[in-house]
Amino acid sequence: MVVTRSYRIAEMLSTIRSEARLTASLTGREAFDPQIMEVMELVPRDAFVPPDLLDHAFDNGPLPIGEGQTISQPYIVALMTDLLEPQPTQTILEIGTGSGYQTAILSQLVRQVYSLEIIPSLAAGAAALLSRLGYENIEIRTGDGHSGWPEHAPYDGILIAAAATHLPQALIDQLKPGGRMVVPIGLPYMPQELLLVEKDEKGKIHARDLLSVAFVPMTGSGQPEETTTE
Asked: Residue 39: which residues within 8 A CB-CB, separation 6 or more?
């Protein structure tokens, strides 16, 4: 039997739906927004993985992308996106561009995505790839995610694609009242918890643990970088 790309994509989507049902008691989400699932189908995940891993591009697991970093498993990408509850008029900050896959997903659901990547080669590679694929409402900068991107704040949502040891105050400050932040919290290479952080209209923060995850650590000292890639 020849396994086609379309079959692999359908298999990936089916696995995401199954995982959503299995974790519903933890996340409160038995199914993800249909528009998010449509974007998961349309964004070419295989364009964002190294050539030697193309056979595994649609597997429900993380894959290495170089520089000690990974592209997150499809279920986690869908879950974090769904938790953010993106809307077409929103501006989103992403911390940890990586290969640009999560960035591309977000860009199809909101007005503008600003994405920070601390590793210059990954930032440049992702920016070039996203431009080549025609994603236009994205701006990528090489910088330390702990400091956020204050020039474009406040943000309707913030998605952190690396494990932080704590909630950076700069990111809390840059989240708009009524906004949401999705972030894995924990020590490097130890079990971590995925948090949904909400800022109410009065600016008070409410955080809720959802489920255990495993992300590469968020690095940097909190000092901003000057290099910008668009």
From this structure: 81, 105, 108, 109
Domain count for the chain:
1
- Which CATH number goes with the domain that contains 19? 3.40.50.150
pTM of the model: 0.92
Catalytic residue among 72, 99, 115, 147: 72
14 is catalytic: no
Strands 155-160 and 138-142: unpaired
Q: Which domain holds residue 16?
A: 5-229
Taking the C-alpha atoms of residue 137 and residue 217, their distance in angstroms, rounded to an integer, is 27
- Per-residue pLDDT tens listing for the chain (230 residues): 668 999 999 999 999 999 999 999 999 999 999 999 999 999 999 999 999 999 999 999 999 999 889 999 999 999 999 999 999 999 999 999 999 999 999 999 999 999 999 999 999 999 999 999 999 999 999 999 999 999 999 999 999 999 999 999 999 999 999 999 999 999 877 789 999 999 999 899 999 999 999 888 888 874 433 333 33
Q: Which of 71, 169, 33, 126 shows the shortest CA–CA distance to 114?
A: 126
